[in-house]
Write a structure and sequence with these properties.
It contains three helices and nine strands; from the N terminus they run H-E-E-E-E-E-E-H-E-E-E-H. The chain is mainly beta and 199 residues long.
Amino acid sequence: MTRKFSNNVRTLLSSDNPKTFYLVKIDTVLGTIRDTTVPYNITVAGLGTFESNNNLLTVDPPQLSDSVDREAYKITYADSAFEKISMFETVITGADVTIYVGFYNTTDTVFGGVQPGFPLLSTDDMIVAYAGIVDTQGYSIDASEGKVIAMIECSSPMAALSMNRNLRTTPESLKNLSLTDTAFNQVFVKGSRIPWGKA
């Protein structure tokens, strides 16, 4: 697949100092999480408003290879107050993730309708760097430095080829997938007697 770049992006990439930012979009059953590395909230037409007050630290790109593999992609947050732990325990596993790379206007003039130093917010001027699902999540704690890092590891949908995931047929387990689904409320186990020997 060939990536298509807008003329604005081509110009910025060919300059001496292109400067980028990330948009992280995670679609969970409870709603969409939108975070950005831009130091203030931004709204992108067609994508929504991305929050800056989120302690988003880094977005590590996948290791590309010629073979079909997981292509793991890691998103890290500073989370000393463990604010993301409830999300980690309930709704985020298997959620769809899209990472966009955007560009700042690093020219000395108005460029793409944007003042110097500000981000280009047209979807035409953004690149989809990654699209996949949340595979695993967890915390890394460095007690000596007092750092708490929340990590979300994403992978391509091909990661699910060799994975088995059990689905418990209880109302409580279904609430992790959908708060309004009541399909398992009437599930029950009916006892039966199996005769042994010859009839």
